[in-house]
Amino acid sequence: MTHADEGDESLDLLIGRVDEYSTLFTAAVDEVLGTEIVENGQFTALVSLADREPHAVADLAPIARMDRRRLLGFLRSLEDHGLLELGTDEADHRRRVARLTLRGARRLREADARLAAFFSESAALAREIAELSTVSTSSPAPAPAPSRAPASALELAALVAETGLDLHDVTRAILGERGFEHIRGHRLLALNAIRLHGACRPSALVDDLRLSPGGVTYLLDGLENDGLIRRERDVSGDRRGVTVTLTDAGLVVAGASREAFVRTRHRLHQRFSTIGRASVAA
């Protein structure tokens, strides 16, 4: 085996472990908040509101890395559930502000306690990711590490979400260069999982992505319509079985995601080293 092959295997293992951590983290956040798939940016905005002070929507938008219209839609959904109040700034009535309600603050306190358990359970995986993302000293200088350690499980979760946003931004830039900017989220996770398998049954993706069989079918329908995968009958064995493989275009998209991991490897190492250490104390 060549050194290049070893490097490829190490990177593939890193991608698989990060995807696994991302899936577990998303499920934990959705469980503790009683929501259905809160995006990373939405979560970072929500954590910013934990102090129960009014925050301008315009100031939350760059934290969430979302445009104001999409962010406002999310905040309104929280308002509908009684978790948040939207109003206007007393000093400038043109500015919309958001503030957690008592119910919202209580929900975040409960989420903090339950997320602490998640970080304790996933600490070994975080430390493995930190080890796998270690890079040689000949690589470019890393970005500055966070200035202080997270003080709570919520802040630690926000750090995980920010790491996801970093990967998303770099991946989206690469995909945009290649004409696939609209591919994101579970679609990228699915393409990466299929690439790592080489070819697989849909049932393997049920386990990898922790989705229902119906959810995987819906996901594969979209990927097939976009020309990124092929589903073929297994004529050599169980004729009722279906094998999923990537098309050339699917390989391009999965390769873009892989390149994003290469470009952000330093940041992954720094963040997951922090997460691994803090998880033990969480």
TrEMBL record:
InterPro entries: HTH_MarR-typ, MarR/SlyA-like, WH-like_DNA-bd_sf, WH_DNA-bd_sf. It comes from the Bacteria. PROSITE patterns: HTH_MARR_2. Residues 153-282 form the HTH marR-type domain. PANTHER family: HTH-TYPE TRANSCRIPTIONAL REPRESSOR YETL, TRANSCRIPTIONAL REGULATOR, MARR FAMILY. This is MarR family transcriptional regulator. It comes from Demequina litoralis.
